[in-house]
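User: Can you recover a sequence for this backbone? Please restate the input before giving your answer.

Assistant: Of course. Working from this structure:
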């Protein structure tokens, strides 16, 4: 393979048409420069210069080779610059997994907005996946960052996590429901109501909901199970029951849904950022800081 250094020497001699002046420009001695040019010609099996006592000129083939060499060196300079930007985390690509709540609660859009301001040349690919699939993606290195409903375990040998949101839950009521007109609700008001359960990322979330209701003083009568909070809100809007929805989704509530705070139901919906313990890319560390230490990003 051709030595890039020899190509740079060749261009300098071609432009100066004098080995001595080229050597001064390159800050090397004349003899090593002449030797490098001779080695390049020998490797190529090509005479690049016509030599005389007064000057050195490119042959016709040398002129053709010079044009291609300049193009190659320009690309090499760009490649070096790109490598340095990648090393500083200024460019490259990120593969980010997320659950629905990360998007609609604003955590992911806000983080991406900060990243775009500070790293405008970064390409981002987003993947809406279940939490378990995201954690496996981190292990397989197909994802760089995951936004999940449950963190990796503390003794996980591969992954680390950090809680980025603990979203309180609100009561979603049909707008014509009698309770929608009350400003203050009590546990007794919810006893005997027909509930719409919401299937989240894990079975434990349903159990946590039932336990929170029991602690508040009533057992929820779950008549329907929705596959997600937006489906649940659509059912609530149709008057088919009431449901608990995370506050971060309140801006997306459809017409016909009234949201009320019920602080005596101690239930929240956490969101965690997770990543691989071994981070080989500065850009991943940059986005991790955007999520967990936003004040540290400059």
């Amino acid at each position: 393979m051709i030595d890039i250094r020899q190509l740079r020497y060749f261009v300098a001699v071609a432009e100066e048409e004098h080995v001595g002046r080229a050597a001064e420009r390159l800050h090397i001695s004349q003899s090593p420069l002449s030797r490098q040019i001779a080695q390049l010609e020998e490797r190529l099996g090509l005479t690049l210069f016509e030599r005389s006592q007064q000057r050195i000129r490119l042959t016709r083939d040398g002129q053709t080779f010079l044009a291609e060499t300049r193009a190659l060196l320009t690309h090499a300079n760009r490649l070096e610059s790109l490598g340095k930007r990648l090393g500083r985390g200024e460019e490259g690509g990120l593969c980010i997994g997320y659950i629905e709540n990360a998007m609609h609660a604003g955590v992911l859009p806000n983080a991406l907005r900060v990243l775009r301001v500070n790293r405008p040349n970064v390409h981002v690919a987003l993947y809406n996946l279940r939490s378990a699939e995201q954690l496996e993606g981190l292990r397989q290195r197909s994802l760089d960052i995951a936004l999940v409903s449950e963190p990796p375990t503390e003794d996980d040998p591969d992954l680390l996590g950090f809680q980025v949101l603990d979203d309180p839950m609100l009561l979603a009521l049909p707008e014509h429901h009698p309770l929608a007109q009350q400003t203050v609700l009590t546990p007794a008001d919810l006893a005997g109501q027909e509930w719409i359960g919401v299937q989240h990322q894990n079975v434990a979330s349903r159990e946590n909901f039932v336990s929170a209701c029991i602690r508040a003083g009533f057992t929820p009568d779950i008549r329907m199970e929705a596959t997600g909070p937006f489906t649940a809100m659509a059912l609530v809007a149709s008057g088919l029951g009431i449901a608990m929805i995370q506050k971060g989704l309140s801006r997306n509530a459809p017409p016909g849904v009234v949201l009320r705070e019920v602080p005596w139901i101690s239930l929240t919906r956490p969101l965690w950022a997770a990543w691989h313990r071994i981070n080989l890319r500065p850009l991943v560390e940059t986005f991790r800081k955007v999520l967990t230490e936003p004040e540290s990003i400059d």
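That completes the design. The first helix runs from residue 4 to 16.
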